[in-house]
Hints:
The chain is mainly alpha-helical and 370 residues long. 57% of the residues lie in helices and 4% in strands. The protein has helices at 94-104, 111-134, 138-174, 189-221, 223-229, 243-270, 278-287, 289-317, 329-361, and strands spanning 3-5, 11-13, 22-24, 31-33, 41-42.
Amino acid sequence: xxxxxxxxxxxxxxxxxxxxxxxxxxxxxxxxxxxxxxxxxxxxxxxxxxxxxxxxxxxxxxxxxxxxxxxxxxxxxxxxxxxxxxxxxxxxxxxxxxxxxxxxxxxxxxxxxxxxxxxxxxxxxxxxxxxxxxxxxxxxxxxxxxxxxxxxxxxxxxxxxxxxxxxxxxxxxxxxxxxxxxxxxxxxxxxxxxxxxxxxxxxxxxxxxxxxxxxxxxxxxxxxxxxxxxxxxxxxxxxxxxxxxxxxxxxxxxxxxxxxxxxxxxxxxxxxxxxxxxxxxxxxxxxxxxxxxxxxxxxxxxxxxxxxxxxxxxxxxxxxxxxxxxxxxxxxxxxxxxxxxxxxxxxxxxxxxxxxxxxxxxxxxxxxxx
Length: 370
């Protein structure tokens, strides 16, 4: 993606699709034209822009997605999508969606995308391996509380990096990009790493709150049954919950999982504040229900398949010995790396499916980001 630096020092990264358009710096309000060079060209005394590019100087990974009709606070407005220059970039609608989705499965056939994928995979494997070793207790026991707190902070930064990568992939696809975005390491560890980690975690929390509230309600009314079910009270009589008591939890948890792809799309493009208008999210889902159902199916098939495939690959490459011992260290590292690569590959397909869903069907949404 092209990189631009404003005269005030703020840096932005944009989709190639937005080159030639104009934007306004969030830090100094300078208006400039986006060109494929290292610096923007300031434009003085410009009238109100009809097509503005979303710019956020606090987080580089969120640059590159058009956002022309957001009301104060970042919440989506209830206006319909309008036609603009971005509509002419690629075919919109079902035909373009299925075509782009098909090529998303083949992204690694492009040398540049394969290189980015391998870099992401290497960092993910190294991070998982390091923090897996640290969590084993050896490092924490030797280093004490201070080292433990430092490693926990580093773990959050690592998870934030991966969350930022995932958000960037969604944004890139939502802007119509056909390839994977670059995601450079920056020194702004709070906004570019900790904030994305929190956003990704909170996107799950917000959709599972109803199911969690029901669990708390059920536990408060059936304390003995809950203690028996988790093995905390072996003397009390078994109180097995009936199917009718389980159904509300399953319905609430299923509804949360169903809306999660739309929630992660909103968080990626507009931040956490965009999900305050939950009614607009539901209206948008209803208006695009067939393709949204397909997107949900792809998301959870890829997520579940990635987790399962990672386990299968690990067991195939580093099976335990006949005596029950672990495989050699190098073999386990290779197995973990291969499993992470398979998981990451399917995750990229999943995230591109979410972004392409918005790109091809945003005219039916109850708000507009482009």
